[in-house]
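Supplementary Methods, section 5.1.

A reviewer requested that the exact input to the structure prediction be made available. We therefore reproduce it here, unchanged from the version used in the analyses.
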Amino acid sequence: MEFSHVGLISDEARAGEVFVEATRVWITNFIQHPFHIEWLRFEPDSPVTGPLRERPHVAWRVDSIERAAGDMPVLLEPFEPMAGLRVGFFQSPDGAVIELMEYEGNPFAAAT
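The structure derived from this sequence is encoded token-by-token as follows.
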């Protein structure tokens, strides 16, 4: 498991945002941010609810989402928001929102 980024929620549009249709959220490129911050801006009709939409998350790059998640409760089932990137969101035993990610290289390369 390798630290990837921290995701913070914002209502402010930011340069270079990419739209994720599956969740109806705009995200920034955490790889380009000097402190590995990903900004998330939800469309009003986003199907994402609960802790994932209300609280920040910590993301980890893993070899296998299923192995790393273990028995943590699922907040958002694993899906592919863009080519070469698979993510899932979970709740840690102490209540933190955790994103687990499988990818090679820069997952934003195809989106820019």
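Residues 65-69 form the longest helix (5 residues). These observations are discussed further in the main text.
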